[in-house]
Amino acid sequence: MKQRRRIYYTETQKALMWARWRQGESLQHIAQLFDRNHSSIQGILVRTGGIQPPPRHRSRLALTLAEREEISRAVVSGISIRSIATRLGRAASTISRELRRNGGIHCYRAHQADQLAWDRALRPKTCKLVRNQDLAQVVAAKLRLQWSPEQIAGWIKHAYAVNKDYQVSHETIYRSLYVQARGALKKELLEHLRRERAMRRSRYHTQKTDDHGRIRETVPISERPATAEDRAVPGHWEGDMLCGSGGSQIVTLVERQTRYLMLVKIGSKDSETVVNALIKHACKLPQELYKSLTWDRGPEMAQHKRFTVATDVKVYFCDPHHPWQRGSNENTNGLLRQYLPKGTDLSVHSQAKLNAIARRLNERPRKTLNFDTPAERFHHAVASTG
Question: Domain check: are 360 and 316 in the same one?
């Protein structure tokens, strides 16, 4: 596989990243704008803890690139420093210092000098918690008590109402934690926040918008037929994705009545790929043994309507954060970890290998089946439909 060329983002592209991040978009959505993986965007944002640095601008007193190009042409022509200064309306000491800092008369290059001046001008504003170490110690002590930055800022406002030097906003505390270059609060204090993250998220990050993890036109599990709920008849399945390292995943399908397991190899976890694999797999089963499919609310099933149209299999979705509503599938996924441990690359397994693993599990007696095997129960169901 040919490695993609490394991309160097422009300031305009970075500004777009930050704008989308503030709006609450996921890293993956932002990365798709540049045809990259989310880690490419995360590397940019995590440098400052997910907090956009303030825009930089040049001082009105600084030499411009055009002036530096004029200096460069003048020294090549042998014009004296005083003459250059007069021509530019600058002090002779300014021109002399400019040349001395950037290689001297014989090595001066305008673009190189301009970039070095821009780099040297980077002087971050000193954080209030750096200037006031006593205040920083108060904040750190409260963080260790699991107080939130907002609670700390509010408490300080009342406790030190008469001392303006002790006033600090919760945003300053967050910035001191996530932007370690400030040197005010130790990174270890992050573990005392309620949600330990590598970088700050937008306040809009968890809002459920139409393009932020929400699957449209879902049919809730409460509308699933009673025969599926009480496992009275076979043909109702539960599905999920089993995750491995490097973003590798496989589809796991468990029949509710018999606990029969089937594994499906997929090339990627996007909805189109997953649904195509499920449609192809559905053709392997008699229609009488594939009446419904219950899934969680993962984005891989965003194209569930296309799956239903192609297979005539209805898809029901669990309530948010209710994995036990697919209990058979959750339990079987746990059993699968004996053969497919966490942290291993699942993409290395062929469909034949996955079939062999499923067969091993299906031929193990299950207490819930009165020590019959899922294979025995499922084959009996197949015979009954024939």
Answer: yes
